[in-house]
Request: fold
Amino acid sequence: MLLDTAFIIDLHREALRRTPAGAHRFLTDNPDLLLRISVITFGELAEGFAPGSRVAFQELVQPYE
Reply:
């Protein structure tokens, strides 16, 4: 399944707040899906991170092909 930028942002915010909601619930309900992001989503997410936040960015995108 190809995940878009908004979904990844929602999932990230849910994790930061420690309040699982829709994005987390979707992943929990569909544990067997192969999750991917496009190069466009990769770029959009990278744009949202400060230059010194490379490790945090890599941790965010690491689970996805």
Summary: The two ends are 10 Å apart (CA to CA).
